[in-house]
Amino acid sequence: MNEQELAGKIVHRLNAGLGSIKDGTSYQLQSARQAALDRYREAAAPVFGLAWAGDLAFRISHNRFYNTRNLLALGLLILSLISITYWQVVIQANDIADIDVNLLTDDLPINAYLDNNFEAWVKRSLQ
């Protein structure tokens, strides 16, 4: 049974007993029903705001996986991954800079300029 069927049954039951009610009571019930419907329509209007923020805070605080210890561990993991990545980029940049400086100042030995695998690659690519 969906909402429309349930609402139809409720309306049918409410209307069935209206014949035995006095006119004054019937008018009061009709006005109360109309006021409830008006309030329902006003409440159904969209409200713009940050409703998701309260819901998110509620879910985090009431979920067993999002306790302080797990969030702290996750934060430390993310921080360590960021710092390791940064460290590797800095070290690689420094290595490349050292190689460039040595190439420009002719401090490298002649073997550094020779690529022994280049000839093998050329032979394989020609086959």
Write the topology of this structure.
Blueprint: H1 3-16, H2 23-43, H3 51-61, H4 68-104, H5 116-126
Short description:
This protein is an all-alpha fold. The chain contains five helices and no strands.
Written overview of the protein:
The protein is an all-alpha fold. The protein is built from 5 helices and no strands. The chain is rod-shaped and about 110 Å long. The two termini are 75 Å apart.
Q: Which residues sit in consecutive blocks of at least 5 with pLDDT less than 50?
A: none
Mean pLDDT: 77
Largest sheet, in brief, is: none
Order of helices and strands: HHHHH
DSSP helix fraction: over 70%
In whole angstroms, the N-to-C terminal distance is 75 Å
What is the oligomeric state here? single chain
Give the DSSP E fraction (strand runs of 2 or more residues).
under 5%
Radius of gyration: 38 Å
Strand tally is 0
- Tally of helical segments: 5
Structural class: mainly alpha
User: Can you tell me the overall shape?
Assistant: rod-shaped
Which labels suit this protein?
127 residues, 0% strand, mainly alpha, 5 helices, rod-shaped
